[in-house]
């Protein structure tokens, strides 16, 4: 996810760069201290809530991995994909907590205290950004693969074939390869100011290359990571819902087939819920992408900054909520969870 590091460097290490936004101009007649207090409180609350939601999300996804690995559930291709989805979501939450924490708390106050820019600040960003990009793409690709399977199972049950494990592993390998260039985008450099040494991140030679700028451009990001996959998710989800409404008896008969774990109606309901929430939560981030591409001011000084923080929180919420859907719609999941908890407590 490109965060335009060269623009950020200018803002935080060049005092001539203004941090005023269009919102600030509208609030110029309000007491400045009150405006700063409201801003600070807003970002701090988002960070605090994010940590709480992320902690619960990591716990829920970890439990999901263990439950979906039990003997009664681990052999189903659909539940294998759900297990990988939980793995990707765990990684997303961990990287996003690092990412959001310093954006909403440290980064917001950085313009007032440049000593915050120690070695750890740019180092965290250097690795958390590509890790988050890899995990979110992995989560979306696994959701897309799972939704495509459910669509085939519900709409054409007679011709349905289970998803091959090779296709699942191919999806994982493809995500890693596609996001590999992001790990080499940035480098850490020392910055001397007032006799003190700060550390900052900037584009590496590879990050400044024409090839990388094309691959990681806003247009490429918008189409490859957002528009195309979520458009397909919307299409498959609509087809699944329409089939479930018009062929209730047919779907019920599917559960009596030779592969009930794969063709179960509960898995289909889980997938529909996951995709619906994913489409809803990523809508705000799409708004940020559009505003950011149209902004004429620096990134942190543009009106899209607030949408970015809220969009990141919605993505965090999406990665943390799947455990609830498993418990609501998955009878076998609830039974396996109960047995696992009783085994641990016993």
Automatic annotation (TrEMBL):
Gene3D superfamilies reported for this sequence: Rhodopsin 7-helix transmembrane proteins (1.20.1070.10)
Keywords: Membrane, Receptor, Transmembrane, Transmembrane helix
InterPro entries: GPCR-Ligand_Int, GPCR_Rhodpsn_7TM
Major place of residence: membrane
Presence of keyword Transmembrane helix: yes
Residues spanning the membrane: 42-69, 81-110, 130-147, 167-184, 222-242, 270-291, 311-329
Membrane recorded as keyword: yes
Protein name: FMRFamide receptor
């Amino acid at each position: 996810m490109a965060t335009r590091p060269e623009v950020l460097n200018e803002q935080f290490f060049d005092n001539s760069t203004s941090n005023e936004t269009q919102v600030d101009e509208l609030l110029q007649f309000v007491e400045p201290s009150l405006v700063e207090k409201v801003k600070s409180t807003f970002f701090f609350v988002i960070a605090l809530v994010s940590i709480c939601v992320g902690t619960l999300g990591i716990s829920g996804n970890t439990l999901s991995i263990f439950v979906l690995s039990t003997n009664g559930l681990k052999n189903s291709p659909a539940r294998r994909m759900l297990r990988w989805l939980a793995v990707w979501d765990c990684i997303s939450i961990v990287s996003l907590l690092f990412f959001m924490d310093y954006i909403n708390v440290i980064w917001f106050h950085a313009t007032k205290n440049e000593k915050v820019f120690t070695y750890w600040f740019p180092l965290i960003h250097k690795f958390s950004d590509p890790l988050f990009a890899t995990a979110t793409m992995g989560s979306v690709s696994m959701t897309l693969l799972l939704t495509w399977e459910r669509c085939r199972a519900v709409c054409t049950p007679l011709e349905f074939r289970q998803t091959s494990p090779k296709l699942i592993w191919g999806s994982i390998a493809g995500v890693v390869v596609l996001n590999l260039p992001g790990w080499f985008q940035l480098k850490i450099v020392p910055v001397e100011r007032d006799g003190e040494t700060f550390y900052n991140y900037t584009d590496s030679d590879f990050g400044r290359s024409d090839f990388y700028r094309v691959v990681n451009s806003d247009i490429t990001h918008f189409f490859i990571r957002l528009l195309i996959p979520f458009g397909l998710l919307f299409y498959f989800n609509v087809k699944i819902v329409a089939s479930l409404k018009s062929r209730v008896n047919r779907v019920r008969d599917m559960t009596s087939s030779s592969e009930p774990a794969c063709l179960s109606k509960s898995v289909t309901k889980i997938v529909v819920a996951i995709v619906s929430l994913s489409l809803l939560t990523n809508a705000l981030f799409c708004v940020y992408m559009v505003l950011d591409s149209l902004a004429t001011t620096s990134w942190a000084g543009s009106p899209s900054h607030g949408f970015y923080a809220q969009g990141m929180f919605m993505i965090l919420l999406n990665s943390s909520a799947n455990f609830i859907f498993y418990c609501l719609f998955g009878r076998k999941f609830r039974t396996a969870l109960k047995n696992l908890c009783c085994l641990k407590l016993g």
